Structure formats: C-alpha cells, structure tokens
Amino acid sequence: MALEATVLLGEGVTITAGFFERAKDAVVSTRTVNIEEIRSDPVGAYDIFRMMQALPSVVSGADQTNEIIIRGGHPGENLFVMDHLEIPYPNHYSNQGLGGGPVTMVNTAFIDRIDFYAGAFSARYGDKLSSVMDVTLREGRRSRHLAEFNLNMAGAGLLVEGPFTDKGSYLAALNRSFLDLVIRQTGLMAVPQYWTAQAKVAYDLDHRRKLLFNFLGGIDAIVIEEEGTPQTRGAENVNFGSNQYTLGLTYKDLFSQNGYFLASLNQSRTRFDIDVYKILANSERDHYFDKDDVEIETTLKGDWFYKLNPSLELGGGLNLKHVALDYHDRYAGEPLILYGYAPDSQTTPDTVSWEYFRDNILNNRGAVVVPLDTLDDGDPWSRASRIGFLKTGLYGQVRWQPLPRLALVIGGRVEHVGLTGAANFSPRLSLSYSLSDRLKLNTSAGRYYQSPYYDQLNSGGNETGDLKNYYADQGVLGLEYLLREDLRATLEVYGKTYDDMVIPYASTTLDSSDVSGGWVNAGAGRSYGIELFIQKKFSSHWYGTFSYSRSVAEGIDPRYPGEDRTYHWDYDFGDVMSLIGGYKIRYMDYDWYRHVKGRFWFRALSWLPFWPADEFEMSFRARYVGGRPYTPRVYNHNVRRWYTYEAQEWNTER
Q1: How many structural domains comprise the chain?
Q2: Residue 47: how many other CB atoms lie within 10 Å
Q3: Is residue 533 within 8 Å of 547, Cβ to Cβ?
Q4: Do 417 and 359 belong together in one domain?
Q5: Structure confidence by residue, pLDDT tens digits, 479-498
Q6: Using 50, 70 and 90 to split pLDDT, how confident is the model at 232?
C-alpha cells in the first residue's frame, strides 16, 4: 500500500528572550551582565570589579584598589567564584586576607556572563557577608584556531583559542605589563611589574556530561623607595612581591531533563613576600619588617538541583575546604627616637618647634635630620607558624511557587571551622510577588556568617581558638518596575546588623598608642539605607544606568562596652550616585555602508581615526561619592610619628 505525503501547515511559535535576565535564586539586589555589556561599559573592558561599582551602595575603599565594599560593610566580604571555583585573590597586588587590588587578573575576553549579588543572597553561597560575584567563562571556538596580540600602554598580551580534538576547545592568554620600561624613563621608582596567565579547556564526555579545566595565575613585584626629601627621609621603603594561582577541574552532569549536578576540585596557592626597610646614611638597608606567608586552599565542592514539577525545585550542596597556612614574619620593633633638625650643615641639629619645622625644614632639601636620643627600644615581634584545618559548608534550599504570582526561596546553611570549632546555622528566606505584569514586590532576609581572616586565625596567640565567626543579619525590601521592555527601575531599602566582629584587642582600650597584640570578638555595628537603580538595556542605539543611594553605616565604640556609643564606620560615604551612558551604531545594518565597504578607496582609508567601522560606540561614566570619614591625627615631628589624642572620638571628620 502506497502512502502519499501531505504537507500540514501549523501556527508559528516565536520565543523572545527578555532584556533583563535574573541570576539563579536571586530575588533582590542582583545584576546579570553579559560580554556585550562588559565591553560597552567605560571600565568593564578593563576591570569587572570597578564595573560593579556602578550599582547603588557599591563602593571602593580607595582610588588605587578595586576592592568591592557593599552597603557600609568592610573589605574582604566579597566572594569571587569563576566556573564553580572559589578564587581568594583574583587581583594583582592584593592585600592579604582581602582580595581587592589595583589591577584585575581576570581577562574580560574570557567572560561570558557575570551574576552579581549585592547582598541577601541564597544559601548556595557562604562564608562571606556582603556580596558574591559569580563569573561564567566562555569556551574557546570549536570551528578554527585563532590568535590575537594586543599592545597598549599597560602592556602586551597574547590570546589563542581553537578546537581541542573533536570534542573540546581551548582558550589561553598571557599578559605582561611593561610600565616599568616606560615610566622608569621619567625618573619614578615605584613602578609595578606583573604577569598574568589564564587558560580554560572544555571537553565533552558525552552530550550530557562535560569536564572543564581552569587556570588563573599572576606574579607581582614593586619596589617603593623614598624620594630623599626631609619629610620622607628615614621613612619606610617596601619591596613587595607576590604570586598566586588557582587551578581546578569542574564536572557538569545534566543527569535528566529536570536536574543537573556540578562538582569541582581546585587548589589556590598565594605567597606574600614583603620586605620593609630604611635606607641609612651609608646607603645600607635596615630591615625591620619581613613577611613570607603562604596560603593554600584545596576545595572539593558539589551542587545539585532538581525540579520536581514546574512550581517546586530542590537544591543542595557540600563544600569541603582544607586550609594550610605557613607564616614567617618578623618585626624588629621600631624604636622611639628623638630627632634633631637644622636648616643647613653649618647649624647644629636640635629639637625645634612645629612652627620652625614648618618654615625652615619641611620643604628644605638641604635640611639636616639626625637622631639625638632613643626614648624607647620598641617591641620586637616574630611569628613562625604552620597550621592546617578544615572548613565545611552544607546547604539545602527549596524554590517554591505556591501561587502564579508568588515565588519563595527557602534555605539554610551550616558552616564549621575546624580550627576554632565554631559551627553556625544560617537561615535564608526570599519572596517575590507580582503585583502586576510589570510591578513586583521583592523581599529577602537572612543571617550571614564569615570566619575570621587567615591572618587572624594564624596569629599564634592563645586567643585564636576562642575566636568565633562574626555575622550580620540582613533584610531587604524592594519594588521592581518594568517601565518598558528595555527599561527597568528598582527601589530598595535595606538594613544590616553586625555582631561578634573580630577586632584588635588594642581597639578596646582608650590609649591610642596601645600596640597590644591579639584579636577579640568585640566589634558590632549597623548599616541601613535606600537605593534607586534605573537601567536601560541597549536598543535603538542608546543604553545607560543611573543609581543613587543614601546610607548610614555606624559602629558601636568597643572602648565603652555597654554604653552603645556609635561612630561612623570607615566606609560610611553617605550619598553615592553614578551615571553611565552610551551610544552605539551598527553601520552593517545600513545598505550604504555595505555598498561602500568593498570599495578600494574605503579600505585604503580605513586606518584613519574615527573612520566608519562595522560598529561605532561612545560611552561615558560619571560618579559622585560622599566624603569618607577619618580620625584627625597630630604629627609629632620630634619623634616623626602620627598620633591621636587619648579617648578621641573616631571618624569625626570627612
């Protein structure tokens, strides 16, 4: 029996992605960006950390670092994840225990997507209080091999990518700064030198399973020496060196249409090698501080997710991290020396008044500075400590949509630090309710714990085992309104309450010259504020963002226990406002451009500045940040030290 073919014409189905993506498990205080947005941002192509500072209440501690500080918090409270691997130091010249630095190591050409959580994140993330940056890297091209060489004022770089067998791909880059070759010709001495290497290999085990290998590493060096002026003569000189790497494997398994599993094994190693010295009159070096610290983290991590039905999803995971710390530090003690001054070599040096120092010594390169007497020999200190311990994290969460307009994310996380025995439970709750097709009410709350910095845990004192994880209770309430398909506004209010913060014991006394060692859980404080964020995605040539935040961040003075005296925290900037905008035109969309592009004269003139290309883009960035609080200090030129008055209030000036 023969069969005849019949053509059936059905209705077409068009699926259109929205302009605004939402990070997984995110309800409030989040932003997701792709590679096109990173490249279009005025600073995103160079530093993804500075790019995130366009969000409200996201600031940096200083101009020379990209350290992310969220909602009045503190440095070192940001978690950085790359392809499921936690990276403790993703920047060059990082401060130990913090992670921020002046130059990022992450090559933006590798990035496919960034999910940034500016607070109140889900139970999937832990051991950080304020924020999470979760970066997904792209894979190398599988069609052909490519190489790209870049040369600019910052340095030179080579990027290669291509297929790896018939089931995978590779992507690798190597960069080296040569500011030392350029700037040193100007006579400046403090010139950074650094190398960066990054690589990713992807391999398909089959159509459901994939294996990823990632490497990120850097080498840093800088020497800072005095300029020979009277006010810097005898000051600190620093020879700083560090190297760090993270390498790891990530396994992805789409075990069913409703679930998947992620597992990773990685190691991060960081070494800080710092030498602080003074240059004596005979040009010899007096080394009075040395640091040679090594930190190694070996992490085994797993996450699973399964959707039972369209309205119910389960998730959970385990994080095992072995920490090995090997510290060798020495401080020779800084004697308290009485100095004498003279305006020239013909005058006998002696102690002088501040007015005489200001008028005759301060800007006088011919001035003579000599030590007259040693008032105190100082307090030498050393540390040679090697420890290892295990940090454990376990979480579970449920994403439930009981009503068409209501979505809940309920979770909890347990964390344990083997060295101190501290174990804590962190509950998390998020809710999103659609008031209309364009308006949502979002809220999130939870308790977030963070373990002390490694430098505090490896301080060598008996108090180390008594330190607890400090925590913050956070709550966020916000409205999200979609004005147009490409224009969205969010308004949020938040509150954070800190307790059990780890601070130096010396901060609990009224004596400003107290140098007592040791750490205690005696810090507490709070922050609260309101934030407005408006974002227009790229469409019809224009894109941009506007953000404004008004906040208060204050600590409880630990010198007066029980009195609830408050002071402005170091990063209480008050008002922060950012405006970013850009215009992009794609000439390839125009017939006239496609017509003339192939002409000989057009190709011959294509090297000229501002000559039409396939795309042309302009962007700008403006930012206002309120004054940072500080505590006024008094300089005693006779002993060449800065002091604060006894019982002086903290951070009273801006």
Answers
A1: 2
A2: 19
A3: yes
A4: no
A5: 999 999 999 999 999 999 99
A6: very low
